[in-house]
Amino acid sequence: MIGAAMREADRVGIGRVTLSRRERLVVVEPRDAGLVLITLRAAEEVRTPSFATADTAVDADMVAVASMIIKRRSGHFDPTTFGDRYQEALRELIEAKMKGLPVRPRQIATPRPVHDSMAALKRSLAQETGPVEKPRRRAASDRRQGSLLLPVSGKKEDATPVPATAATARPRRRKA
Fold it and tell me: Which residues are within 8 A (CB) of 19 and not within 5 positions of it... i.e. 6 or more apart?
């Protein structure tokens, strides 16, 4: 009856609710035969967007690959195909405990090695549509490591080995 009265008056309710130990501002809105609760943000949480402009040019090949992926992966959204994996695992755990079965933690899969995703995307597209230009090979050393190298002074010929003496051969022991 409250929902019908709110609908007739063309009004929504404003209130507060505690979720995850935090009080939040909410709107209560009548919908069909029930009420919908929508959380709101506080005024200090709402800001005008300030996106930076892209100073660098975008690689046309990357945009073409991304566009191709978007076209191939686009389709009808069916929310029933997505499940809450946490809730499902929790339900399985509870059912196993209720049946008295031993509960073992699941094995965590080791992460796969990182690969060049742009080259993999191009190979994938080439398999489906035909040849795509070959990815460029990188130099033998990683160019990013140049900033990590430390300067070394002196010449290689000048470095002569220092003979080990009795004083330098063994570390001194302290007397207690």
Answer: 39
Strand locations in 20-176, DSSP E? 22-31, 34-39
Nearest to 19 by CA among 36, 40, 46: 40
Per-residue pLDDT reduced to its tens digit, 92-110 = 999 999 999 888 877 888 8
What is d(CA 156, CA 65) in angstroms, rounded to the nearest whole number?
Answer: 49
Taking only the tens place, the pLDDT of each residue in 106-126 is 788 888 887 788 888 888 888
User: Tokens 């040019």, residue?
Assistant: 57
**Lookup result for tokens 């046309």:** 60
- Both structure tokens of 87: 């809730």
Please tell me whether residue 19 adopts helix, strand or coil conformation.
strand
Decide: helix, strand or coil at residue 17.
strand
Residue pLDDT, tens place only, 46-87: 888 888 777 778 888 888 888 888 888 888 888 888 888 888
Phi–psi pair at 43, nearest 5 degrees = -60, -40
Rg over CA atoms, the chain? 32
Distance separating the N- and C-terminal Cα atoms of the chain: 88
Let me know: does 17 contact 4? Beta carbons within 8 Å. no
